[in-house]
Specification:
By secondary structure, the protein is mostly beta strands. It is 0% helix and 46% strand.
């Protein structure tokens, strides 16, 4: 099944972050696919990365590459179910992930904590880094990929 999953982040996906250290490490570098560029937050926790999708998606896996020493070591993965922006649903915790303090790509299957979020169509996704391996709370991400299904 994983072979059928596709990247849910494309040119229409809007990216918002809690903070940026400076322009040379801005949010556009989160999804550019280059191992030479990154996003770095300012100091302090929590920090977050928020994605808004052009159409509903069903996320199944996240692949994220941090810079060792600047890893969001405790992360709440939140989702905005479809229809929420019309005043219906609200942001909900899908799951929690615990990245290691390493430089390599880390993969996390998104296993919902609540049954009604299994295969839930969402409009938004937020990675809230509640803790960082950096003493000052900074987070550096070189690459972020979200894989899953795009319902027709």
């Amino acid at each position: 099944m994983a072979e059928e999953w596709q990247s849910l982040i494309n040119e229409e996906t809007k990216v918002k972050v809690s903070s940026t250290l400076d322009k040379s490490v801005g949010k556009k570098y989160l999804t550019d696919g280059s191992p030479e560029t990154c996003w770095t937050s300012q100091q302090g926790t929590p920090q977050y990365i928020q994605l808004s999708f052009a159409s509903p998606v069903i996320p199944k896996r996240v692949e994220i590459t941090f810079q060792g020493g600047f890893v969001g070591t405790r992360c709440s993965v939140e989702v905005l179910p479809s229809g929420a922006q019309d005043g219906g649903a609200k942001w909900r915790v899908l799951t929690r992930i615990y990245p290691e303090d390493v430089n390599r790509k880390q993969t996390f299957d998104l296993m919902p904590g609540e049954p009604d979020l299994v295969d839930c169509r969402i409009e938004g996704m937020k990675f809230v880094f509640e803790e960082s391996s950096d003493f000052f709370g900074r987070v550096t991400v070189y690459d972020l990929r979200v894989l899953g299904d795009i319902p027709s």
